[in-house]
Structures are given as C-alpha cells and as structure tokens.
Amino acid sequence: MNFQTTIPLKPQSNNQIDYNSKVVLLGSCFSENIGEKFQYFKFQSLQNPYGILFQPLAIQKLIFNAINEKIYSEEDVFFYNEQWHCFDAHSRLSNPSKETLLQLLNKNLFQTKNCLIDATHIIITLGTSWVYKHLDTEQYVANCHKVPQQNFTKKLLSIKEILVSLNSLVDLVKTINPTVNFIFTVSPVRHIKDGFVENTLSKSHLISSIHQLLSSQFESESLSYFPAYEIIMDELRDYRFYNQDMLHPNQLAIEYVWQKFVSVWISDNSEAIMTEVDAIQKGLAHRPFNSNSDAHKKFIKQIEIKASKLQEALPFLKF
C-alpha cells in the first residue's frame, strides 16, 4: 500500500549543475532555503544580493538595474523608524547609516551584474502575484518596510503582466549571457495575510505565467520548471512538515525538496564531492568535550587534511 502521491521527476538530461557551475538564486524565501544548501555544500553561488524578493517585478527591476549599471543615490533611499531603507531591497539591507546603505546597494548591484555574466544557472523562485505601488513615487516596491499601508495601492498582477515581466528578465540576461539556464520555481510558502482564496489565486497566476513562458519557448532547453510547490502541496500534504506558523516548510521538508532537486539537477559526479564536503562541514561543527585533548587535535588534523585535498582539486572552496 502506498500512502503518498509522488510527483514524477526525471534527471535533467542536459546542463546539470556541478562544481564548475555558477549559480544565481533570486526571489522568495524558498530560494533562501535552497540557496543555503548550495552554500553549505560549497557550490559557487550568489543568493539574493538584495534580500528576499517576493514578486516578479522586483526581480525584473534588480536584473534591469544591475545590467544597466544603475548607481543608487540619496534620491533612492528614505529614513523611517530610525533606519535608512530602499524600496528596491529587503529590510535586511536597511541600515542606520545612509552612506552604508548606499554603498551596500551599489556594491551588491555590481556583484549581481558580474555574477549574471558568469552564471551557468539562474534559479528564480516566485512567491506572490500581489504587488504594492508607492503613491508618491508611483513605483512598485520590493518591500514596504512597514511604511503605513495608506501610502500604497495593492494590486494582483495578471498572468499577462507576469509573463511580460518574465520574458523581459530572460531577454535582459541573455543580452549579456546567451547560454545561461533558467530554472523557475514557485514558493510553497502561503501568503495568508492576503487571504486564503487570494493566496491560491496569486499562486495560480504565477504557475500559469511560468508555464506560458515555457510553452512560448518550447524549443529552448535553457528554461525549466522545478515543481517545489507541487512537492510540498502534494507529496508532503501534512502539517508536520511545517514550522509552528503552519505556513513555512520546516527543515525536514526543505531537506526533502533539496534531495528531489539534487536528483534532477545535480550531476552524479558532484554527489561524491558533496559527501566529502558534508563530512568536513560536520567535522568543523563538532563541539568536543575537551578541545585540548590529543584525540580532538588528531581529529581536527584529519579534517584539515581532507579539506586541503579537496581544495587542491577545487581551489574556490573555502571552509
């Protein structure tokens, strides 16, 4: 007897990710979860340089500004609740110093362009179709930074609007990196503040627009969809796979989806390296009863030898 439905998956036949790949992850907090896995296993990756971006227009704007080398200035930031913020970035970039925020915005934007140029894979996770337009600037914002809601108008992006945005960001990146591979996903995190029905409608717009994009470029092998949303909703349809808020997948669910992603997108020859990296990471995280004991010193020496051998083959690895 089988008590679980399973999303059919098959390994990607071309363009899999290995330790020579360079991965850029942009989007909703689910991209953070997968991005942390890439960082843990020491893949070459850049994760959300402007913080979590929930909706497609924000991701498109980041890519547009990076490619066009925008320079952020005082006009692009504002002071609120004792911090300086930018409507294009998540609040984790906010800072009590205006100069520090501007330096961070411009540094991360420069880094983003360089990584987009070199990227072999770009993973984009969309979280919501709901967007907020700031009334004074008439710009859609990536984050409201707890500015009172009367300063914004709220809108549900249509499937057509999302499709136009996705087409635009793909075309933008391909002007500087024509061979890059895009992997689209939809975040399984539910935005209940929008309402239960409204969240379902929002997710459906995202899923429909991504698949319309794939259908319009059906001859291209550089655009793919990974069903993270469906795996959580259909395979792990139980609240034991969620955090206490009952909205965000817990570590067990994240690990499950990561293993599914590995089975599709990570090359077989990289899995042995991942096993070695995992052993080193666990060794480095080990907390001994006596750090001055001979046994512990010998253990640390063995870990250092393993790390050194791996770094000889892959010099970019940093432990």
UniProtKB/TrEMBL annotation:
Its EC number is 3.1.-.-. Keywords: Hydrolase. GO terms for molecular function: hydrolase activity. Residues 22-261 form the GSCFA domain. Pfam families: GSCFA. It is an enzyme of class 3 (hydrolase). Signal peptide: none annotated. This is GSCFA domain-containing protein. The lineage of its organism: Bacteria, Pseudomonadati, Bacteroidota, Flavobacteriia, Flavobacteriales.
